[in-house]
Amino acid sequence: MGNPNSWVCFGLHHFHPDLQSFREALAVLQHQVDELDALKASHYQEIMEHEEEVWEVVQGKVCLWDLTQYIEID
Predict the structure, then answer these.
(1) pTM for this predicted structure
(2) In whole angstroms, what is the distance from residue 71 CA to residue 74 CA?
(3) pLDDT (tens digit, 9 = 90+) per residue, 52-69?
(4) Torsion sign (Cα): 54, 59, 60, 61
(5) Nearest to 54 by CA among 65, 42, 64, 46
């Protein structure tokens, strides 16, 4: 079987490049998640702005319709 200490050292030394690759891949993944979060926030902001515009138009039409109920047309 050999010396257990040399096996552990070999195991740690062998694991180090894999750990570094994992850390690099994790950093790339975190960057992609951050970009996705920013894109999602931008998308929801656009939706909120559009909804505000739509509701302003609806409110204007309702107010105009309500106003016409009080105006007498001769």
Answers:
(1) 0.53
(2) 9
(3) 999 998 888 787 776 677
(4) positive
(5) 46
Strands (E), the chain: none
- In the predicted model, what is the mean pLDDT of residues 29-56? 96
Q: State both tokens at 59.
A: 């409110």
CA distance 52 to 25: 41
Question: What is the rounded CA–CA span in Å between residue 2 and residue 9?
Answer: 12
Q: How far is residue 3's CA from residue 1's CA, in Å, rounded to a whole number?
A: 7
Euclidean distance between CA atoms 49 and 43, whole angstroms:
10
